[in-house]
Amino acid sequence: MSLLKKQDLTSEDLQLLSSEMSKKQKSSGTTWLLWFFLGAAGGHRFYLGKTGTAVGMLLTLGGLGIWTFIDLFLINSMVKQTNEQTENELLSEIRTIKQARANSEVAASLK
After folding, report:
1. How far is Cα 55 from Cα 70, in angstroms, rounded to an integer?
2. DSSP 91-106
3. Most exposed residue of 7, 42, 67, 105, measured as fewest CB within 10 angstroms of its CB?
Protein backbone atom coordinates (compact mmCIF):
# COMPACT_ATOMS: atom_id res chain seq x y z
CA MET A 1 0.00 0.00 0.00
CA SER A 2 2.80 2.38 0.86
CA LEU A 3 4.41 1.98 -2.57
CA LEU A 4 1.18 3.01 -4.26
CA LYS A 5 1.10 6.18 -2.20
CA LYS A 6 4.67 7.01 -3.21
CA GLN A 7 4.44 6.33 -6.95
CA ASP A 8 3.70 9.91 -7.97
CA LEU A 9 6.49 11.46 -5.88
CA THR A 10 9.63 12.87 -7.44
CA SER A 11 13.06 11.82 -6.25
CA GLU A 12 13.27 15.14 -4.39
CA ASP A 13 10.00 14.36 -2.61
CA LEU A 14 11.22 10.86 -1.73
CA GLN A 15 14.45 12.29 -0.31
CA LEU A 16 12.45 14.74 1.80
CA LEU A 17 10.22 11.91 3.00
CA SER A 18 13.23 9.77 3.89
CA SER A 19 14.92 12.63 5.72
CA GLU A 20 11.83 13.47 7.75
CA MET A 21 11.15 9.81 8.53
CA SER A 22 14.66 9.35 9.88
CA LYS A 23 13.97 12.24 12.26
CA LYS A 24 10.47 11.22 13.35
CA GLN A 25 10.30 7.44 13.25
CA LYS A 26 10.23 5.49 16.48
CA SER A 27 12.91 2.97 17.34
CA SER A 28 12.05 -0.61 18.28
CA GLY A 29 15.10 -0.74 20.55
CA THR A 30 14.11 2.36 22.45
CA THR A 31 10.55 1.09 22.77
CA TRP A 32 11.76 -2.24 24.18
CA LEU A 33 14.05 -0.52 26.66
CA LEU A 34 11.21 1.71 27.83
CA TRP A 35 8.96 -1.33 28.16
CA PHE A 36 11.60 -3.16 30.20
CA PHE A 37 12.33 -0.31 32.61
CA LEU A 38 9.06 1.66 32.58
CA GLY A 39 6.52 -0.82 31.23
CA ALA A 40 4.18 -0.73 34.21
CA ALA A 41 4.13 3.07 34.01
CA GLY A 42 3.37 2.99 30.26
CA GLY A 43 6.68 4.59 29.26
CA HIS A 44 6.77 2.76 25.93
CA ARG A 45 3.24 3.89 25.10
CA PHE A 46 4.04 7.52 25.93
CA TYR A 47 7.05 7.24 23.57
CA LEU A 48 4.83 5.87 20.79
CA GLY A 49 2.31 8.70 21.23
CA LYS A 50 -0.41 6.49 22.69
CA THR A 51 -1.01 8.91 25.54
CA GLY A 52 -4.51 7.78 26.53
CA THR A 53 -3.58 4.16 27.09
CA ALA A 54 -0.26 5.21 28.61
CA VAL A 55 -2.08 7.21 31.28
CA GLY A 56 -4.32 4.20 31.88
CA MET A 57 -1.26 2.03 32.41
CA LEU A 58 0.29 4.63 34.68
CA LEU A 59 -2.79 4.82 36.88
CA THR A 60 -3.23 1.03 37.13
CA LEU A 61 0.46 0.06 37.23
CA GLY A 62 0.15 -1.61 33.88
CA GLY A 63 -3.14 -3.24 34.77
CA LEU A 64 -1.35 -4.78 37.76
CA GLY A 65 1.22 -6.16 35.32
CA ILE A 66 -1.23 -7.89 33.01
CA TRP A 67 -1.32 -5.06 30.47
CA THR A 68 2.46 -4.79 30.60
CA PHE A 69 2.76 -8.52 29.88
CA ILE A 70 0.32 -8.31 26.96
CA ASP A 71 2.36 -5.46 25.48
CA LEU A 72 5.29 -7.86 25.32
CA PHE A 73 3.52 -9.37 22.30
CA LEU A 74 2.20 -6.10 20.85
CA ILE A 75 5.26 -3.82 20.89
CA ASN A 76 6.60 -4.63 17.43
CA SER A 77 3.22 -4.07 15.78
CA MET A 78 2.70 -0.83 17.76
CA VAL A 79 6.07 0.51 16.54
CA LYS A 80 5.27 -0.50 12.96
CA GLN A 81 1.81 1.09 13.14
CA THR A 82 3.18 4.32 14.63
CA ASN A 83 5.87 4.57 11.94
CA GLU A 84 3.34 3.89 9.16
CA GLN A 85 1.06 6.59 10.56
CA THR A 86 4.00 9.02 10.68
CA GLU A 87 4.89 8.21 7.07
CA ASN A 88 1.27 8.72 5.95
CA GLU A 89 1.15 12.11 7.69
CA LEU A 90 4.40 13.13 6.01
CA LEU A 91 3.12 11.99 2.60
CA SER A 92 0.01 14.07 3.15
CA GLU A 93 2.11 17.12 4.07
CA ILE A 94 4.32 16.68 0.99
CA ARG A 95 1.27 16.42 -1.28
CA THR A 96 -0.23 19.54 0.32
CA ILE A 97 2.99 21.46 -0.29
CA LYS A 98 3.14 20.26 -3.91
CA GLN A 99 -0.48 21.29 -4.48
CA ALA A 100 0.10 24.71 -2.91
CA ARG A 101 3.10 25.26 -5.20
CA ALA A 102 1.09 24.21 -8.24
CA ASN A 103 -1.77 26.53 -7.25
CA SER A 104 0.59 29.48 -6.77
CA GLU A 105 2.19 28.80 -10.18
CA VAL A 106 -1.24 28.77 -11.82
CA ALA A 107 -2.21 31.99 -10.00
CA ALA A 108 1.05 33.65 -11.06
CA SER A 109 0.50 32.66 -14.70
CA LEU A 110 -3.00 34.15 -14.65
CA LYS A 111 -1.75 37.60 -13.64
Report:
1. 16
2. HHHHHHHHHHHHHHHH
3. 7
